Amino acid sequence: MIRQEIREREEAGKGYPLYNILGVFAFKNYKKDVEIREKLMQYIVKATTVEDNDLLLMLDDYATDLVDFDNSYVSSLRDGFTKDEVYKIFAYAAYYSYLGFDQHDKGLGRFSSLRENWPNFCALTSVGLNEDVQEVLKKNNYYNIKGLREAMERIEAISRSSSSD
Q: What does pTM read for this prediction?
């Protein structure tokens, strides 16, 4: 149902409203601890196909918008979270969106010709190379997300090789 609504809004030239994703990927529990819905993110990666990537794009947009501190429209995504918590949520969301993109050879700056709604860069590729984001990820040991350090190293290597061409 959400996918259909997203598709209709996208086709009408509108994005999905933020209230549809508040609390979907991360929230604070009754103890005021951040809970990240990693299993949901894993499911999205597993369920994504070349033809059906709506949920993955939502996860990717969420990751990008979380750390867009200059955009007041998306600031409600950060409400109730500290900056450190926002970066931790970003790390999970961006890593899993990266996995979804990468399984279809997308999102690492490769031209997308199979489907027009596959962006050329995923959140981890476009935002993860930001020095502030990299510093926070390294300082927090990549939040112990297995594979995140390697993904960042791979993205950095691709970025270096494409900028030297």
A: 0.84
Q: How far is CA 98 from the centre of its chain?
A: 7
- Reduced 3-state DSSP string for the chain: CHHHHHHHHHHCCCCCCHHHCCCCCEEECCCCCEEECHHHHHHHHHHCCCCCCHHHHHHHHHHHHHCCCCCHHHHHHCCCCCHHHHHHHHHHHHHHHHHHHHCCCCCECCCCCCCCCCCCECHHHHCCCCHHHHHHHHHCHHHHCCCHHHHHHHHHHHHHHHHHC
In the chain, % of residues over pLDDT 90: 43
